[in-house]
Every structure is written in structure tokens, then in C-alpha cells.
Amino acid sequence: MEQKVREIGSRSVKITDAFWSKIQQKVIDVVIPFQEKVLNDEIPNVEKSHAIENFRIAAGLSEGEFYGMVFQDSDVAKWLEGVAYSLIVKPDEALETRADEIIGIIEKAQQPDGYLDTYFIIKEPEHRWQNLHECHELYCAGHMMEAAAAYYEATGKDKLLHVTERLADAIINRFGSEEGKEHGIPGHQEVEIGLMRLYHVTGKEKYKHMARYFLEERGKNPDYFYEEKVKRGWQHWGQYSLDKLDVTYNQAHRTIYEQNEAVGHAVRALYMYTAMADLAGTDADERLYQACRTLWDNIIQKKLYITGGLGGNSEGEAFGPAYELPNDMAYAETCASIAMVFFAHHMLEMDMDGAYADIIEKELYNSTISGMQLDGEKYFYVNPLECEPGVSGKLFGYRHALPVRPGWYACACCPPNLIRLVTSLGKYCFSESASTVYSHLMIGQIAQTQKAKITVETSYPWEGHAVYTVEPKTDKVFTLAVHIPYFVDFTKEGAYLSVNGETIPAAELSIMMKKGYVYLTRTWQAKDQVVLHFPMEVRKVYANQHVRENAGCVALMRGPVVYCFEGADNGDLLQSLRIPKNLKAEAYLCEDGILKGNVLLLMDGYRMAGSGELYSEKPPVKEKVSLTAVPYCIWANRGENQMRVWMLEEF
Amino acid sequence: MEQKVREIGSRSVKITDAFWSKIQQKVIDVVIPFQEKVLNDEIPNVEKSHAIENFRIAAGLSEGEFYGMVFQDSDVAKWLEGVAYSLIVKPDEALETRADEIIGIIEKAQQPDGYLDTYFIIKEPEHRWQNLHECHELYCAGHMMEAAAAYYEATGKDKLLHVTERLADAIINRFGSEEGKEHGIPGHQEVEIGLMRLYHVTGKEKYKHMARYFLEERGKNPDYFYEEKVKRGWQHWGQYSLDKLDVTYNQAHRTIYEQNEAVGHAVRALYMYTAMADLAGTDADERLYQACRTLWDNIIQKKLYITGGLGGNSEGEAFGPAYELPNDMAYAETCASIAMVFFAHHMLEMDMDGAYADIIEKELYNSTISGMQLDGEKYFYVNPLECEPGVSGKLFGYRHALPVRPGWYACACCPPNLIRLVTSLGKYCFSESASTVYSHLMIGQIAQTQKAKITVETSYPWEGHAVYTVEPKTDKVFTLAVHIPYFVDFTKEGAYLSVNGETIPAAELSIMMKKGYVYLTRTWQAKDQVVLHFPMEVRKVYANQHVRENAGCVALMRGPVVYCFEGADNGDLLQSLRIPKNLKAEAYLCEDGILKGNVLLLMDGYRMAGSGELYSEKPPVKEKVSLTAVPYCIWANRGENQMRVWMLEEF
Description:
ten-stranded antiparallel sheet, seven-stranded antiparallel sheet, homodimer
């Protein structure tokens, strides 16, 4: 691993990107206010949240019973974290005041010893910390820490930060490897991320130390959850019981250093990997970094959908076996893809390898934002790569994979996760080390790094063109390292990188390029311009032969965008369509309708027509047809219809 | 519909066929004795059956508690039915004596009012007939009636027949459309078949009348099971509860005349269709015949696996939506394919259409006998068309589809069903009307029809050659109608039909041929010989474009036999193999190893080799390889390995 470099923080970045500003705006104007109303139980026909009311009751400000999931508190935390980032993107005094009020309630709900979880405060104060396996107390604590750190960074206000410091101290008092402490670990990882965030904001070693404890304790005693269950007399929480105690589900089967395969619940796993990578970079811990690499490689080589989706097994919302990536049965939870961005981001900080930035791009342009309807009002939790009306969302095996985005779920994990990803997008754009400013993503923005103000103008992902205008804040030499997406080939016609209008010859570029970044070192002058340009070709992608589902198939990509075919454009029986061997696809900007502003693909292809019989010895006949593909991330915006990412190819 | 013709009965047929004699022998020598031991709880490491002991307890011959499923009695009934047919194939005095003893116990267990069901006699005498939905009393009764009829036909002994007549009378007393009677219907159809069998044996109209009642009452009140549940205070039987009351599962959602789609539990459905077809033919009931046709056509056109498997939805062991025929998730229960033989057989009796005989062949050579391991010792209940070790039998969605045949199940439906099919094979071979003897199947045998003794010698299904030697018992003109399998084309070289060495010209044959049968009318002389000969080509079969799973794929058949590819012959990654457009497959007789005696296929094909990456823009490269296909019915006899019926084809 290399010297860890740090993100410059979303505070220092203003997104001006055509593609992303629209999404940020949707999230800020639609999703955040909607969720606020849900949290306050102001939306009819949405399952009662009661989440803020739970805090009020716990604070003694209201009377009543706890209502909701055992992890209901986390909904408030995630919303607050999203609000924090949104206040950076778009200051909103009224919203901030309302957030402050909620923080005030949370503070009042906190117990004198620092404990904070409304389910147990209200309902079972005698059972605190006795069911780490199912009861999400540490998970909720982690989200509250993330919210507190974000809110402090966004507003400078430290009330929630202090609340979560007290909470963290209560956790430190109770858990740990020291004698007399409970050797506990969370059933759902997240507190590790929260503690690292607290550490980064406060600089207090004890929080980082505690994050390491939770990570390294995990799997040391694979029977921990079982023993906990015996100890509490086999009680379990409400409807939520993981009776089988398959601890691979919680990644508690082995220590993190012994885990060499991504298994179990994908979000749990990826939250854990995220904290591992953060800690490895922060402590320059080579062993921990190698553990991260092992898991990363396993995912990249065997368990990642082309869309960036993670989790091929809907049972347990989990990673499946290697190469077992069913398209129509995929789980590919929106939250898992978001978590993969977190993981990749921390890996990138340790190793400036464009492969990580490429994965962040893959996630951002595909399996994360596919979770949100274009109007911002409905959400997919599950992002399948094939949809069959009448089967998807209906039949055994497919019930989780809905054909259209439903409204708000009672278990509202994905929409608030999308809020925080989209509003904090700025922090994934640039990193900075002593010598170098790294640009990871081609996203239009104005970034204030320590060494320069850098303005990026681009029409990416629709066009391969970006202009980086540098206004240095120093007269010393420094390096601007620009990430070149993996599919850009400077030896091909039309691809170039120029500095102040002077194209750098390909041969020279290849010397300046290291692991996906072009390193431009010079004494930068105001208004220096770097232009990155490359043709956006439609690329055919093939899956490994081990992937049963994709045998004989091809998927289309253009830039980082994965395309899919929908019935709305192509008629029914997408399985009878064939992509030609010599594909000539024309990309065009959709200028009207709900898909307006997106680049679609138009191509010639074939449709196989057979007899009407169920089985026939007459080979089907191929007919020429015109086919249209749309970006995967905007599928299912035109009602229920068939969809496929992987299409059979002419052999 | 035509005048109903009747089977000649398995008593009148002696199977001498190389292919089938071996299977009959395996069933008689291995499966029947094994099941007898199971029923008597004499096999260690097999879940206790207790079925005969239940009868003993009910008869007052033993003390103890009922044990087993609520339908445990049916295991004894099915075994007795199989024994009956086996005594025809191979007389066995000792076996017959033991069967007589069991029948004696059953007789003693029967209650004075005719009631017979050991679960309720022993355990809940006060709850008889109160849970038709779940409790299988009528189902068990139906199987006992079938056993009684078979045993009477095989041995001439009528003790069990009288038991079941008394039982049928008790049922008639209780149920019916008349006022004062309970308007009940069975939760699992079968009693309808049993009553028809009783009718055919005894000639008593009341049994046929009762079968009609159960068929026609069905669906008149779709809430019947719900109302029954309310009436009994929501009690349900043991672990067996169909709480959801989705009455399409039991085909009770509409009347039989309104049902136009095969839905729900496949075995329940097919038992019902079987009884419907039997009754339609028996009563020359055109309306009922049309109802059967509608359901038949729906299955043939939209819901049948190429192997003859039925039931694409493992949830509810049920028919899925039209064309939704997943290969690796198939249910395709052995029992459903056996029931399809019953259904087809009765349809054929009403309409001498070779299409029905072709389906009987499809079932016999593929998805029925695939249920049994070559050594007769292990059984598949589920017959998938694709198997992936590590996934099949293991992962969510695939747990039912085991990669190798397991041993005896507690719920032993399929092995005894196979016993009765295989031992009664003779009855599917010939039918006879006033003017005509119909030969349906190319199976080596000596058949005693009323008009002639007919000896069939054949090496089918491995070779397309059969010799029918006729020894007439009359000097009057009669017709021998020989079924010509649908894939035989007399206009092609090598295919011919000759009588006493004289080949009938193709043009003449086409006139003599009607719906798949060649009608040969003459005054038959002793030793007259009809020879049917046709080349056995390997045929490529394509699925309808609506079948998502089989898009781009081809399956191979030779004669009635469907082939599959196994890892044992072809290495791993069967999905990376391609069948050439211009296939040249060589059929050869396997001469050693466990597959000895089967005709395998050898062919050139391709293997696609890609990069080791999960996704790559480099198209996979094709390599020539040699491929081997084996009959589907003998798959999984060489340990756990990958298997596919549908293979991607060169485009």
C-alpha cells in the first residue's frame, strides 16, 4: 500500500455537473423533504415511521409506546447525515433549524450513562446490549456517529457530536478485549464506520482503537452470537430472528484476516470492508490492507454484476457462490452498491489505482442511481438485470425483484442511503497528498484543493470530454493526477490529453500514466487548462464463461454506463432478439419524453421468429429489426415491462 | 370425440422388451421388496414409515400411536397396487401371501360403517371428514380403490375390493349434491380415479356417479375449503397446513368446465384430468371431453418440458405461467409425468390420435424413468433439465432440485408411483375396438388381443425397427392400426412399412395413415408380419421464443429419447459449449461402464474460451471439441456433476 491520501471533503467541492446536479436537486427537493414527512408520520398511505416520535417518547417529551423496527432510530440518523451534506450543497436555514430541533430531542433522549437507543430506552431497558446479534444497537449508534460527524463538518455545530461521543464512550466502557469487558461484536456492522468517522473529526485515538477492536474481535469466537442467545434464554427480538445462526451471514465465521471470500449479507459485509479499509489507510496497516485486497479481488473477480450490483442470492440479501450471478433473481441491493462506493473510496486512498475509481464510476452511473425513479418519488431496493412481468416480483424465487419501483418501505434503508451518497458526491471527486492533487471522477465541479482551485467542465457520461481549469494557490511545482477511465485508449484516434492546447503524444502519455492516472507535474499558472477527450464508443462486454446466466450473451456499455433493453422500445420477447456480431450502434440524445436528456443507443439487430409450437424441429428464422437500448439506471420508468441487460449475440 | 376404445389390460400383455424388461425387473427385484421393508420398518437409516403398523393398530392387532403423514395409508395402497401388477409380470406366491396378509389387516382396520383411514381411526375419530382440504382421507380412499381393482384383476381375489366398496359406499352416504349430504370435495384429487376403477371392475353405476359428483362439484363453491376451515375452528393437521387457501393450488377455483389453464399442484391437476378423461370416454360425454381437450392443449402448447416434465414452479409443486419453464429450478415431479401418462392414455381411448401416444412415449422414455437410479435404489422426485453442483439442491430457489438421487423419502410418493407405472406398462401398449387392434407403443411384447395374438419384437428406442407378428384368432377381416411416432417420415429414405416383406409405397401409406396410425385392414393369416422401419436420426429441437430459458438453445432427441450433456463426459462449464449449426452426431451403443446398453451421441462442437476476467471486451474464442450426450433418463448416475438438456447453438 502507498501513503494514504485524503479526500478533500464535500465542503470543498461544488458540483456543477449537468448529470449529477439534476440528481442532487431531486434528492434535495423531493427525497429529503419526503423522508422528513415520513419520519414525522405526515404522509398518508405510507407505513407509519414513528421514528422521531420514538425519540420524543424516550426524551420524556411525549407519551406512548415504541413503534417500528428495532433499528428505527437509524432512519433519523441517516436522514440527518443526508441533511448535513445537503446543507453544503444547498444551504437551507429552515431545514437546518428543524434538524437542530431533532438533534435537541435526540440529546434529551440520551440516558445519563450515554446510552442511546429508543427501542430499549422505552421498551426493554433491562435488556440493553443483550442481543447484539439481532438488535442493531451498535448499528444505530454507528449511523448516529456518521450523522454527527457530517453535521459537524457541514454546520460546525457539535451538539450531536458530543451526544455520540458520550455514546461511544458508553460503548467503550462496556465492550473490549480487556478483562471485565464484554467481548461483543455487532450483528450488523456499521459502528466501525461511525467510530472511524468520530476519530477523523475529533482526532481521539480511543474511537479508532474501538473500531479496530470491533473489527478484530469479529470471528475470533464464531459462537459469540450463539452463546449470547443461550445467555439471554433464546429470546429474540419481535419478528426479527436469525434463528439459524449461520454466522457467515454476519461475516462472523472467521477473523477478518482469515476471510478470503465475500460472503453473507452484502451490506453488512461491505460496511465491514469499508471500515477495514479506512482503518488500514489511517494506520498504514499493511496486514489489514492485504485483508481488504483479498476481499476486494474476490468481489471484482467473481461476485460483481456488470452494473455494479452486489449480492446474487436473495436469501439473506447475500453474496452467492463465485460466478453465480442470476440476472432475474439478483438481489443487488441499492445499499450494497452504495457501500461498494465507500469501500472503493477508502481503497483508493491507500492505492492511487484507477481501478478503484473505475468501480466508483460503475456504481455511481448504474446500480446506485437505478434505485431511484426519475421523479425521485419511488425506489428500488433490488436491482435485477432482467425483468419479466408476471414473474418478477410475483413467483417464488423472484418475489424480491420487483418490476417497477414501489413507494417507501417500512424498512427504509435504501432511499436515505441514496440521499447521503448523492449529496456527498463531492468527496469522491478529488484527493490530495503533499505533492499531488488527484482527480478521480469526470464530474463537473469547482473544487477547492489546498494547492489550487480546479474547475471541471464536462458533459460526461454522455460525452468523453472534460476541461480542467487550474487556478493554483501556490507558485510551487505540484502534480495534477487525472484519472483516465479504463476504457480510454490514447493510441486510438480521437483520444487525447492536452495541456493548454498542446496535445501530449501518446507515447509520452504512456510514460506519464501510472495505474490509470496521468501525472502532470509543473508550475501551474492561472487558467492553465487540461483537456481530456476521447471518443465514446459502444462497447460489447462478455462475461466469464463461468457465469452460467450470461452464456452466449453480450452487454453493451458506453463510457461507464451499462445499457439495457426494454420492452417499451423493443416489443416483447427480448430473449428472441440478437445483437449482431458486427454491431454498429448509434448513440443519440433523447430529446423528449421521460427519458429526455439521456443518451440512448440505436442499432440493427435480429429477432428470431419460430413456429407457434412449444417445441419444433424447424430452426427459428432471423428477421432484421431495429433495436434501442437505454441506460440501465433509468429502466422501469415507463411502467411494467420486460428488461434485459445481457442479450444473446449472433454467434 | 370418437367411440371409446379400451385397453386390453396388462394381464393380456407380456413384456419381452430389452429396454423395459430390465426396468421391470429392477422394479420387481429391488424397489418392491425395498418398499415392503420400509413399510414394515425393517430398513435402518430410512425414516420410519409405520404405515403397516398404523393399520395393525387401527385393526386392534397392535398397540401404539399413529405415526407418519396424514396420508401414510396411501403408501400401503400404492405398494399393493404395484404388487398386483408385478404378480402379472412375475408370479410370486410368497409375495402374494404377504400381500394377502396385509389386506387382511386392512380389512380388520375398516370400521363397521365402512370408514377406513388409520390416522383418524387411531388419533382423532371425532374429526373424520372435517378437513378434506388437508387431510387426504379421500385421497387415501382413492388409492386403496385403485389397489383393490388392480389386485382383483391380477389375482381374482376380491377381499380388498369389498373393503373398498364398503368404503366407497360410506363416502357416497356422506357426500353428494343431494340435500342432507355434505357438498364436499377432496383437497387432493385421486378418489375420482379410484371410483372410476371401482366402476370399471364392478360395473356399478353408483361409483361412476360419485366420481362425476366429485369432479363436477369442484369449483362450484370456491370457498368450500375456507368454509370448512371456519367450521372446524381453524384447526389444521400437524405440520401440514395450506393456510393461504389459494384454491387454484387444488384446482378448486372454478368448475372443471370453466378451467382453461393447467394451474396449481401438478399431480393434483393431472389426477383430476385423468379422472375427467376416463369419465368423458366412459360416458361419451362430449362436453367433458372438450374440457379435457382445453386443459390438454394448454399443457402441450405452453407448460410441458421437452422431457415430459410438468410443473415449472417449485412453490406448490405447481404449473407455472405459460412458457415459464426454468431448467435448473424445474419441479417436474416424477409423479406428475406418470400422471400425464394416465391422462394421455384416457385421451387416446377417446381419440385415436398418435399425438397422445407420442406423449406417452415422451413420458416413458424421459421424465418418468429419470426418477430412478440405474440400480433401482435411489429416486428423484424432481427432474430438472439443468443441474449445477453447488447451486442445485443447495441455494434458495434450487433446494428442491437435487444434483443426485437421494434415498427413500418419508413422503414416498414417487417410487411407488414408478412401480405401478412400470409393472402395468402392458396396458398402454394395445387397445381394441370392434373392428380394430391398435398398437400404440413400440415395445417388445406378446399381446393377447381378442382378435389376435400379436408378438412385437423391437430394439426401440435405440433402433427404429419393429416386427409385428400376427396370429389371428378370427378368420374375419380386421384392422391392425400401428402407431407411427411423430418423427417418422416415410418420404425419407430408409423409412418403410412392409407387410409380409412387401413395402407399402409412401403415397399409399399416406392414404392409409390417419392421425399417426397406419390402418392395415385385411384377413390376417398366421405369421403375417408387419415391419416398421425408420432411420433414427439425431434431431435438433427448438423451444418457442416465449420460453426465456431456452433462448438461443437447442436440445437433441433421437427417437423419443431426449439427450443431455453431463460434466462427466464433457468437462466443466457446459454453458461454454456450443452445438454446431450443421450438427453431425454419431449414435453409438455404450458397451461398458454404468451406462452400458444405452445409445450415446458423439459429435463435434465448440467450447468458448474467454479471459479469466469476470468481464472482458475480448470476445471469447471458439475451440473445436468433441461432445458426448447421454439419454436424459440416465443422468446423474455417475456422481454429482453438471448437466444441461438445452445447449447453446452456433448461431
